[in-house]
Design goal:
five-stranded antiparallel beta sheet; HIT family, subunit A; 3 helices; alpha+beta; 28% helix; single chain; globular
């Protein structure tokens, strides 16, 4: 789909701070994160919702989600994470390309779920992406 922002990221037509990629999925930092280190994991195949994704592609995507979750935990030194996945505009899905959110969480630190805002200082996004990419699990 040519108007899909995630498809443009997949094709390197738009920049992203990638932290992971394999044959099934890529993962990159959300530009309007709930917390620093908030990562999106998307399949290489364009489909709008989870139920549209073929099961073999879903298996590869969820393996990537698990791998990226480990990287985020280690790279961000967080105590836990939220895993979110929205389907349809009524659920809050704003980009209609199936994706998972991995949001780092820290004991005693509340997260502001809405609205999204840019939390990164200049250069900080790539620094955090490099920290997550550099983890060896």
């Amino acid at each position: 789909m040519t108007n899909c922002i995630f498809c443009k990221i997949l094709k390197n037509e738009l920049p992203s701070a990638r932290v992971y990629e394999d044959e099934h999925a890529i993962a990159f930092l959300d530009i309007f994160p709930f917390t620093k280190g908030h990562v999106l994991v998307i399949p290489r195949m364009h489909v709008a919702t989870l139920v549209d994704l073929p099961q073999d592609a879903l298996c590869g995507l969820i393996r990537a989600v698990q791998n990226v979750s480990r990287l985020v935990m280690a790279g961000m030194k967080c105590d836990g994470f939220n895993l979110a996945q929205n389907n349809g505009a009524c659920s809050g899905q704003t980009v209609h390309h199936v994706h998972f959110h991995i949001v780092p969480r820290y004991d005693g630190v509340p997260v502001e779920w809405m609205p999204h805002k840019n939390l990164y200082a200049p250069g900080e996004m790539e620094e955090i992406a490099a920290r997550i990419r550099g983890v060896r699990c």
